[in-house]
Write a structure and sequence with these properties.
This protein has eight helices and five strands, in the order H-H-H-E-H-E-H-H-E-H-E-E-H. With about 240 residues, it is an alpha/beta fold. It has a domain at about 70-235: Glucose-6-phosphate isomerase like protein, domain 1 (Rossmann fold, 3-Layer(aba) Sandwich), CATH 3.40.50.10490. A five-stranded parallel sheet has the order 2-1-3-4-5, sandwiched between helices. Helix 3 packs parallel to helix 8 (about 210-235) and helix 6 (about 145-150) packs parallel to helix 7 (about 170-180). The longest helix has about 50 residues, at about 40-85. The chain is globular.
């Protein structure tokens, strides 16, 4: 199931209203212009668009502040653990479905393309040949676990991203990573879903929101912070050169 529920783009005003779209953009589907309204009706719509944008920006700002208060110390601790794994020759494997696969790819890019300290990272969602072969020949639920079983070593790091926290292939991947001794890091939304119930996660960061858009925006902040803190820590951790 694709995790991203929308592309964030407002539909044409003439589009037929669906419950989901109407909930996101109610001002586009309301009766805006009555006889004689003219420019006044258009100004009212523009004002509603502006108010909606401001409300969404304020919502994500408050959510990010809440995460900083609740999880700031744990993010710093997690980054130290990740830095120690990298210093010991470990690598990072990131994975997710749909929009979360895109976020996993961005996390990988942050580590690989860092001008300050590039670090080895791989996206398990990024190779369509491998993913589709596993989905077709075995099943979607093993798409990430099978890759970890082939590639991962005990010093490595597994990072899985989900909005619901219920993706079966992430749960299988974390179980496999836990059996192999990897450091496991999960990002989830809502109440954490089934990811909050498994014992194989070393760190779970839950964005407690009912909006998939705000969840993914906040998760972006979490993994950006983890990347930045980890890169800074690596410089202070003795490297395993043996």
């Amino acid at each position: 199931m694709t995790e991203r529920q929308g592309d964030g783009l407002a539909p044409p005003v003439s589009a037929a209203a669906s419950p989901a779209m109407e909930s996101l953009y109610p001002f586009l589907y309301a009766e805006r212009e009555r006889p004689g309204d003219g420019a006044h009706g258009e100004q009212a719509v523009r004002a509603q668009v502006k108010a909606s944008t401001i409300a969404k920006a304020e919502e994500i700002l408050l959510l990010r502040r809440m995460i900083a208060r609740q999880d700031g110390a744990r993010m710093a601790e997690c980054a130290r653990e990740m830095a120690a794994r990298f210093a010991a020759g470990g690598r990072l494997f990131a994975f997710g479905n749909g929009g979360s696969a895109t976020d996993a790819a961005q996390l990988v890019n942050l580590f690989l393309a860092s001008s300050e300290c590039p670090l080895p990272a791989f996206g398990l969602s990024s190779d369509p040949a491998v993913v589709t072969a596993l989905c077709n020949d075995v099943g979607l639920e093993v798409a990430f676990a099978r890759q970890l079983s082939a590639l991962a070593r005990p010093a490595d790091i597994a990072v899985g991203l989900s909005t619901s926290g219920n993706s079966a292939n992430l749960l299988r991947a974390f179980s496999e990573a836990g059996r192999r001794g990897l450091l496991t890091v999960g990002l989830a939304g809502y109440d954490g879903g089934k990811m909050a119930e498994i014992a194989s996660l070393d760190y779970l960061f839950v964005v407690r929101s009912d909006s998939v858009h705000r969840i993914q925006e906040a998760q972006t902040t979490i993994y950006q912070v983890l990347w930045e803190l980890t890169v800074r820590q690596v410089a202070h951790v003795p490297r395993d050169t043996g």
